[in-house]
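We modelled the chain as a single entity of 276 amino acids. Its sequence is:
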Amino acid sequence: MNIFQRMFTRPTGSDAFLEQKRRKLSRIKPILKERVDYTQTPLHYNFLANELRQKYNIVDTSNVSANAYDPIALSMIEKHKDGLVLDCGAGKQATYYPNVVNFEIVAYDTTDVIGVGEELPFKDDSFDAVFSLNVLEHVKNPFACAAELARVMKPGASLYCVVPFLQPLHAYPHHYYNMSHQGLRNLFDATLNIQKQEVIASGLPIWTLSWFLQSWLNGLHGEVRQKFSEMKVNDLVGNPIDYLSKSFVTMLSAEKNFELASTTALIAEKPARSLS
């Protein structure tokens, strides 16, 4: 933990924390869009009107999103300690930074502004840096959200964006889109200069492999679970068709199959035209 991080770590609810809130909200107010309705409390500005909730399928959730910043994010926070960094989909933060605007759909105590990523309530060219860390998969319209992130960045500002590619279903409260590195690039290629793409430590394939196997194991019971846990890698790398009748495949629940699905299918019908 660096000096900057220690300096601004405060217990939420304390007088020191509430004073930091007051100061930050006063810094945020001048960059809020004009003529957009919101409510204000001592903890946040709330732009999440019922119309937006319905439009973007925002529902209340008991799930808590809470992830610590990695060295890349921390270095950007420190670089712009005299500016403003937008964390779009910040979750609940253990450290409350005075220069990071925590934007969320959930009113955590560390949330500064409540709203949706597809319609950010900030003026153009407002932020020195923008984060979107494992968030775009939960956004109903990631193309609109990407455009909004670019819009609120100052000229020369930096974007740090991380998205899942091969991850099981995980809803906070919804999970819409995973994407490849090419898909991620496609979201920003027309508006930003892409400097680098990489697989960071928290996104290496071992996370995918471990997550899938642990979750699969947790979806089994009794003797089938025990036998599956004793299988070797070599037992699982054959032709998938040969495994379709195996108990460790057939005994997974429908919910677990959706969580770990290789593909999902949809059949739909267009409504008939009204005769009126």
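As a brief sanity check on the tokenised model: Confidence is low (pLDDT under 50) at residues 1-8. The CA atoms of residues 15 and 21 lie 10 Å apart.
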